[in-house]
Amino acid sequence: QGNIRVFCRVRPLLPEERERQRGLPHLHFPPQDHHSLVLTRPDDSQVGRERRAELRYDFSFDRVFPPAASQQEIFQEIQLLVQSALDGYPVCIFAYGQTGSGKTFTMEGPDPPGPPESRGMIPRAVRHLFLGARDLAGKGWQYHFSASFLEIYNESLRDLLLGKGERGSDLEIRRMGPGSDELHVPNLTWVPVESEEQVLELLLRAGSQRSVARTGLNERSSRSHSVFQLRIRGEHPARDLQCA
């Protein structure tokens, strides 16, 4: 379905927002069309008593998710991308948006963790990968997983998986080697993982160390960029095959 796909997710109104406004009258989701989003607003300019028609802006995406969309619906759209990581292809899922738009909820789930259906893309992707690795074990493949979690805050990098009281070394983004486009962060903590539950524990550990602050839109904004990485190494000894 394309190497690069762009989705738009609109989050529901928060309780305090519902008190100030009724619904989302400026947002329109055309029925039977999962690729379009229409923004409208009245044109306040008037000529005498004549009022102009409202302004309309049409946007199209590979997929649009209205406020009622569930975490499972989002994951169904990226499930095949996640699967291709087991086949040795690099995959990146990138959430972009302003403060309070729901990036952390989409990727990690609620804080504190809620019921299984509220889990975010990271735990769902990891669960899918572990299940896939078990299936492929019957065909002779052996997989090893390790995870890292870093934060980029005020132009500096912070290792979010350090133990309490541990002081990490200064982190920098480096190229893997001369002429290589692949990047890495030397001295970043990588933790071997074997289950979805272990990854959820890492998310909790990382979340407790993130830089957070109150903003006008969010009681507890992340105030930073975070990057979760899962390194996958597979080998098939009988056929002398490897993937990463």
Automatic annotation (TrEMBL):
Residues 25-45 are annotated as: Disordered. The keyword ATP-binding applies. GO terms for cellular component: microtubule. This is CTK2 protein. One of its GO terms (biological process) is microtubule-based movement. The keyword ATP-binding applies. It comes from the Eukaryota. Belongs to the TRAFAC class myosin-kinesin ATPase superfamily. Kinesin family. It is found in: Cytoplasm, Cytoskeleton. Signal peptide: none annotated. Pfam families: Kinesin. ATP binds at G97, Q98, T99, G100, S101, G102, K103, T104. Residues 3-244 form the Kinesin motor domain. GO terms for molecular function: ATP binding; microtubule binding; microtubule motor activity. Residues 31-45 have a biased composition (Basic and acidic residues).
